[in-house]
Amino acid sequence: MRYWLHPEAAEDLREAAEFYRDRAGNALALAFIGDFERAVSLLLEHPGLGALFASGKRRWLLTRFPYSLVYTVVGDEIRILAVAHRSRRPGYWRGRR
After folding, report:
1. For residues 35 and 49, what is the distance between their CA atoms, to the nearest angstrom?
2. What is the rounded distance in angstroms from the CA atom of residue 51 to the CA atom of residue 73?
3. Segment 9-37, tens digit of pLDDT
């Protein structure tokens, strides 16, 4: 199993990491990236873990930060469509495929 990160999801991830770096320093930004990487590793092992919602998409919550990975499973690939803050701009990613 492998994963693909939508270009806009990569931008979501970068913006969130920059937010934490600018507000609290590199250590918190790296902790955010680490939380993302742990979530991806877990989903690669168990792709059905995320809660099913919104037209076959799944959502997995990061452990330490208020973000979710919105993804679909296609064959042997997890397609991460968004790294979405849980209380900002709900559903902004819906047009992503």
Report:
1. 16
2. 12
3. 999 999 999 999 999 999 999 999 999 99
How many helices and strands, by DSSP H and E, does the chain display?
2, 5
Q: Are 18 and 24 in contact (CB under 8 A)?
A: no
Alpha helices in the chain (DSSP H): 7-24, 26-45
Give the phi and the psi of residue 26 in degrees, each rounded to 5: -60, -35
The structure's pTM equals: 0.91
Please tell me the CATH superfamily of domain 2-85, with its number. RelE-like (3.30.2310.20)
Cβ atoms of residues 78 and 59 within 8 Å: no
CA distance 4 to 86: 21
Residue 94 φ/ψ, nearest 5 degrees: -55, -30
In angstroms, the CA 97 to CA 92 distance is 13
Beta partners for residue 76, in sequence order: none
